[in-house]
Amino acid sequence: MADPQDHGMAGFRLVGWGLVCTVAWLAIVLLATVIVSEIDGGEAESELGLLIVVAGQAAAGLVGWLLIPRLILRRRGQSQLISWRRPQRSDFGTALLGLGAIYVALYVYTAIVTALGWESLIPESTIDDDRLFVHTSVMIALGVLVVCLAPIYEEAFSRGFVLGGLNAHWGLIPAFVVSASVFSALHADLGSLIPFALAGVILGLVYLRTGSLTAASMTHVGFNLIGYSATLVQQL
User: Fold this and answer.
1) How many domains, the chain?
2) pTM for the full model?
3) Are 210 and 202 in contact (CB under 8 A)?
4) What share of the chain in percent tops pLDDT 90?
């Protein structure tokens, strides 16, 4: 029987590898920022500069949150934690239930903070930036990032790598707490911290219920698609 202390240390090592993934993500984001500063002389304003910002975010997510975590888990013999399967009928049903649960949680949270007068805690769109909706090419690139790519690499990291990895070493509750916290932190907005943590818990339940990232990614795609579409209509 494995020593519980060994499991605990293995979990901490996984957290350390998670920090390595974060550093890789940050390095690519900073590289894109440096390139943009050379082009625009500061904050991205031109079409090319904005495209580089979006492409940098996509590259950072794919490398830091998907590629490196998969390599780490493969080395640990846990590559199955980050895996997708061909969508099954049950995946569609579970994904829809998860999407509905997220919106119920978001509605209840927003209603509570609004009733209490805590306007600063009302969630805001993380892509509500006028500059991103000036050029058609940037809007398309942003849509691909938000709807197609982000749900893949965020689920790979938050659910597969963190939740699945830590569950094997620390147990379900600590793994859920860390996973939901990580997912919330990926969306740097004060009002989004609690609702995105709740969304992280729901997506984690979808992931564990189906044993694959497929349904969780489908839920995430649906959530981001609705959010992006609403922001797009508002901006246009």
Assistant:
1) 1
2) 0.93
3) no
4) 77
